[in-house]
Amino acid sequence: MSANATPRVSGGLVRIGPEEIGILADFSHAFAASLDVGETLRRAVSQIAEHMNAEAAAVFLVDPADGSSICRASAGPVDVVGMRVERGKGIVGRAIAENRVQLVRDTATDPDYLGDQKGFHTRSILSAPLDTADGPIGALQVLNKRDGALFDSHDADVLRLLAVPTALALNNARLTRELVEQNRIKREFQLARQMQKTLLPARRKDFPIVAVNLPAREISGDFYDYFVLADGRIGFCLGDVSGKGMDAALLMVRASSCLRWAGKDAMPPEEWLRRVNIELCETVTRGMFVCVVAGYYDPTTSVIEFANGGFPPLLLRRIDGSVLELRAEGPPLGILDVCEFPSQRVALAGGSLYAFSDGVTDVRGPDRVPIGIEGVRALIERVAALSPRARVRSIIGQLRKMSLADDTTLMLISDDQSPARYLGGIAGYSDPDNLRLVRRAVADVVKLVGFDERACHCMVLAVDEAVANVIRHAYQGSVEGRVELSFWLDDSYLRFELRDFAETVDFTRIRPRDLSECRPGGLGINLIDSVMDRWSFSEPHDGVGNLLTMCKHLP
Amino acid sequence: MTAANDCSVEDKQGFLVVSVRGEVDLSWSQRLRKQILDALATTRAVVVDLSQVSYIDSSGIAALVEGFQNARGKGQHFSLVAVSKPVHAVLELARLDRVFPIHANLEDAARA
User: Fewest Cβ atoms closer than 10 Å to its Cβ: which of A154, A266, A486, B42?
Assistant: First the structure.
């Protein structure tokens, strides 16, 4: 309520006497003390009619929607509250349009006069604009001087003067209303933001996932979530809803709850996204969609299995510093209900997986050009030596220094919280005669770690089976394939990593068979499955061959 | 553990007894398979003595399963005797301990 709320007196000098000063003071006081501007306006109109010795008085306010004027208060024999006068029409319209006092001594001679209302005959009219710095917001009008007299220029001056506190009060009320409304909306948005924040998972100490969401406005169209499944794997998802307004925020709420609900069933990622996609397709407004990456991280094998629907590529920074870009293999969700979202697998093996919404790649650098994937890679490289949480903090800090335009979300999954110790390994050719050596090595390591005889026998068997599978299936009996076996120990697990360099195997087809059927082949995976607490196939760092990771909880 | 891998066949108390020694793995489980199938081709009752087996993997188990299935198809006797602890552990893991007829020794097998 600054300078632009100050009403002005249009025209030249106003001649006023003590009487006018009295009523002006009353007016100003009444408006200043009033909480209900409508009621004050009604009293003011009566006082004006009284003071001006007029048969009737009214206040018209401009409706910003169409510029017409509506009567907000009236005094006199006929109640004209609610009467609407089109923009520029009638004496009121003219006073507002010209922003000048209109004195009509005889309505019969004025072509703009709109005619008598509700049987009240108007002979003469005096109409003064309610002027503010933003222009007239309405008009104050008196009709028919009593005793058949005519309004004169003194009356015009007085009305013009009375219009000043009236305009001021009305303008203040309008601004107050707007401010209240703005505050209300602001509070609503704050509540919505708080609400959204509660949807984000609580930050956890010593947890392999660190994530941050920076909304571009009060509310965000981005979201992320993670949760621990009963088997120890960690489900995670990251989404970006098209658009940025309240509609995007509401869709975000829907999408994130859908994802969480479906993800807790621990279904494979391709199925997870397929289901959520169908659900969203049924409910999402046409033209809106959600880009999502969702999957599971297995802390014991360090394997991440995920599916990506239209989300920006994930970046895997391996322990050797090389970076693998994992692009989306499915479209965004909520567009077509028959889409496929193929699962992808990657082993962290000491590395880190970065997932980020397009708000990160769209950040503009000093040259005003979006930094893109290359820019993100550079950021990741710069912070590589830091701890996971410090890395996320540092990247977000650097992004903030540039210009953030969109919702920005970053998630980091890393297994260097509790680094595994390398215990040793053996390498050799895929010759069954070497299995005996493999068994000796496994037995030595397992005993060293502190397992008992029986557990030792079981693990020897499981690893032997795994190597035999490599010989028989991956190398198809060739004795010249290279096989590498390494042993890792962390706080809770002994981990075996078996690497071959054969053709990539379709992991999804390797499942334990039904033991109730008795047949000679295919037992190996069952033995591995019953001995090991966790096992998983993945693609090795360099993309060549296969990597089988098997874990056994320490005794 | 030092016993050399080997399997031999002997005629004992009306059975052909296949005695297996050492660690049965992919490197020679085919040999065991052949011995068992050959034995089943020449007699109606085959017993596999596993007392001297310190290790057996799924390829060895597979040879036993195949023998068992062949014998059952032709109404022959096929059983395992004197199953060593390591072998029993694997049979248990594969839930085959209730599938194979298992006897403590040849006498028990003969009574069955």
Answer: B42
